[in-house]
Prior knowledge:
The complex is a heterodimer of chains A (222) and B (229). Chain A is 51% helix and 13% strand. Chain A is an alpha+beta fold and 222 residues long. The radius of gyration of chain A is 21 Å and the shape is elongated. Chain B is of the alpha+beta class. The relative contact order of chain B is 0.15. Classes of the chains: A alpha+beta (222), B alpha+beta (229). The interface between A and B is large, with 80 and 81 residues.
Amino acid sequence: MLVVGCPGCDLLQRIPPLPPGATARCPRCSDVLASRPRGPAERPLALAAAAAIVFIIANTATLMELSASGRDSSTTIIGGAYALWQQGYLFTAAVVAFCSFIAPAIYIAFVLAVLLASRHPPAPYWVGELARWAGFMRPWAMPEVMLLGILVALSKIADRATVAPGTGMVALGVLVVLLAAIAATFDPAEVWTRVEWAGGRRPPQEARSAQSSQSTYGAPAQ
Amino acid sequence: MNAALNTAVQSAVQSAAQSALQAGLASCRVCGLLCRTAAAAQQGDWGHCPRCGVQLVSRRRYSIQRTWAFAIAAAICYVPANFLPVLTTNEPGESETNTIMGGVISLYTSGSWFLALIVLIASIMIPVAKLAALAYLLVGVQRGSAQGSRDRTRLYRAVEFIGRWSMLDVFVVSFVAAVVELEPVLSAQVGPGMPYFAAVVILTMLAAKAFDPRLIWNGLDEADGRAHG
């Protein structure tokens, strides 16, 4: 039985060990207290590895092509930020670069690192810190907003020139699905239960056995 | 989690529903571990989390002040964001300059009323709704309101969830500018309103992040505390 303070309303409550696929919610504010994903432990790792590959494809392939009166041009994801930079809008370019490229790249890389490093608990302390940063990056990584933005951009130009979506668009669509799937199977907050305590202190033996019953993925503690 | 610590924590939890703050406990802001706060908590020293070592706090520090600051800054930027042009498209003999609202209208007149509606909601209505909702939540917390805490928490969660969709127009303009490079046939220039609009989106997202939803329940917790003892 684990006691927590609800992150949404600070109400104290005890959480019983959860069966796979279960979510514990606060009875007062209905915020999620804890969840245990269904499915094998390796699922989020497989999804994160796939997301890393698709992210590289999405950023190297052509996003869309445009042609009018025998002239044509094309762009990639980072081309959006680059165009703003070229026109002198440095702040906006930085915002677009962060939300379209930097935040998703950090999120995917950190999730991969966390999942790989926490397979055999206790994981080193930095794993918890990386998981926390992955959580910070998640709301700023907005491939789904960007995808909709590109669709609107395409339809804005469509009556003036011939536009064609490229491979990058398909990869971006797949990336949106993969990131949503990672969010559904990976809980950054849960990683802390498998992390070595500050100052090299180990959780007591009793705690670690309680921890393994809490553990949602990864090898059980020794 | 640490069983020894959790036993100590369990003994502090009484049968009646109470908040961690009332029980002299605090959830670590980094790792979420429920910890006993130091005896000197009233003087502002809450002690450290034994798991990750950071300083404990019961509520996000200066949450109300920081949320107000971000929200007011966003409201100021909202004015130039909507009155300055954000995009100019040039064709031979024809040039079209649009504000955010102008972009919505041109989408509507070109026949895509559905996309026009999405952009209208994401770019114009969501930022205003977010600022109004945050102001309402802040005033409720500052007045110590104990009513409708559940609905106010839902409102906060909605604000947090929809905020990122306002970035839509920033992406629209940046990708139009990136792909429309067919001088002299067709070209596009970003307008001076764009940085302000991007600032509105960033600032409203930061405002939502700075707000601590647990403050919403302080009023009810205090009223309950008085009722029980």
